[in-house]
Design goal:
mainly alpha, Serine Threonine Protein Phosphatase 5, Tetratricopeptide repeat
Length: 420
């Protein structure tokens, strides 16, 4: 049977997008029925359903309702797995629920979004900070160990071990999602959930590899979850509103961040007419709500920085002094080398490139920074600003060798060529 290569390619791309969009919902629905002690089973059958689609759809075409098709296949595979393991008697009620097309009843007084419910489960306080964040990014969003390791400036091997350990520990807890999370659990886990959404957006906003400059579906799903948290009466805390504001401001520039060929457009060169004014206005409303609490979090400060960029009518009109003040407070709160890199770049634009370069030269000596692409890009741009082209070229080459998404690599190669 002959197939159309272009059709296969189109279906593969659609399946890739569907995988990233539906994976979390698919697993969340399965865990809702199986309980969190079967989280690994839910992940396995969801992956099997997606692989089945990949093997069938290029030849038979996509079904009218791909998400429903995947859900049904995953349910059937879960039932088959339970039967093979002779557990059908133990899980009679669960199996009946899985066969039903009706959703399990969810208490309207609790978190209703299935992905958020799964996120709250994975952010269990029995797991250590990084472990629960990493596990949630893996389970809910499907990021690889390597992608998650990049976020935490770790190695793929170390992160894979963390993920395995976290899954085992969560399984031992045997806490089921068939009951909605309590108000106490929502309160105690909200900070971790917000950080997961923040990191999820970051991975979509600036992926470290692949063919896309922006993984919009990932970033926009994170924005949706942030808005759910900001709008829900149990989670509408100042920090939740601040995170929603930040993501609105950042997402508002998506259309201006890349040109017609998908290559990056630097912030100072972006066409403000392409910015999404509705998202900016929404961000300002969330930021206003965020100011009603006494505490200032990293999300408040980052949203404040993003709001200055979003509301400046020109690049020359950016209030760098206020941005530097925000960054000074943000560095105190986070002690993050990534924040320090961004602060250094802002310092250069504020008219202090020499001091900025000195800071970056100190930062690059810290663990894992030598292979962190953004710091070499920052050094290259500042060296170029200072007219030290030969050194800038060396940093561009180091950045290229460190790895990045294809559009970023192409951009760096163009910057390098323009300096030669």
């Amino acid at each position: 049977m002959k197939t159309n290569p272009r059709l296969n390619s189109d279906i593969s791309r659609q399946l890739d997008l569907l995988t990233r969009r539906e994976r979390g919902r698919l697993i969340a629905g399965l865990v809702n029925r199986l309980g969190s002690q079967n989280l690994e089973l839910a992940e396995d059958v969801a992956q099997e359903a997606l692989l089945t689609a990949l093997s069938i759809w290029p030849y038979r075409g996509m079904p009218d309702n791909p998400a429903a098709w995947l859900t049904q296949v995953a349910r059937n595979k879960a039932i088959d797995r339970l039967r093979r393991e002779n557990r059908e008697q133990v899980y009679d009620d669960t199996l009946d629920a899985m066969r039903s097309e009706e959703n399990i009843r969810i208490d309207p007084e609790r978190i209703q979004d299935p992905e958020l419910r799964l996120t709250f489960l994975c952010c269990h306080p029995a797991l250590e900070g990084v472990d629960r964040l990493a596990l949630t990014l893996r389970v809910v969003s499907g990021f690889t160990a390597r992608e998650i390791a990049d976020v935490f400036l770790s190695t793929s091997g170390a992160m894979a071990q963390r993920l395995s350990r976290s899954k085992r520990k969560l399984k031992d807890l045997e806490k089921s999602l068939t009951e909605p999370p309590s108000i106490f659990e929502i309160e105690s886990r909200l900070g971790a959930v917000l950080m997961v959404v923040y990191l999820m957006f970051s991975l979509g906003y600036a992926p470290r590899s692949g063919a896309e400059l922006i993984r919009r579906d990932v970033a926009l799903e994170a924005l949706r979850l942030a808005r759910e948290l900001a709008d829900d009466k149990h989670t509408t805390k100042p920090e939740a509103n601040a995170l929603a504001a930040l993501l609105c401001f950042q997402a508002s520039r998506f259309d201006a961040r890349e040109d017609a060929t998908g290559k990056p457009v630097l912030l100072e060169d972006q066409d403000h007419r392409k910015w999404d004014k509705a998202l900016i206005d929404m961000g300002l409303r969330y930021l206003g709500s965020a100011m009603k609490g006494p505490e200032v979090t990293r999300y408040h400060l980052e949203a404040g920085i993003a709001s200055i960029y979003a509301t400046a009518t020109t690049w020359d009109g950016v209030d760098w002094e206020t941005i530097m003040n925000y960054y000074a407070r943000l560095e105190q709160i986070t002690d993050s080398p990534v924040v320090a890199i961004n602060a250094s770049v802002a310092q250069a634009f504020a008219g202090q490139p020499e001091l900025s370069l000195q800071r970056l030269d100190c930062l690059v000596k810290r663990p894992m920074m030598a292979s962190y692409t953004p710091i070499h890009i920052a050094r290259a741009e500042i060296l170029r600003l200072l007219g030290r082209d030969d050194e800038a070229n060396e940093s561009y080459l180091t950045a290229i060798a460190s790895g990045a998404s294809s559009p970023v690599i192409q951009h760096l190669e163009q910057r390098l060529a323009s300096n030669l």
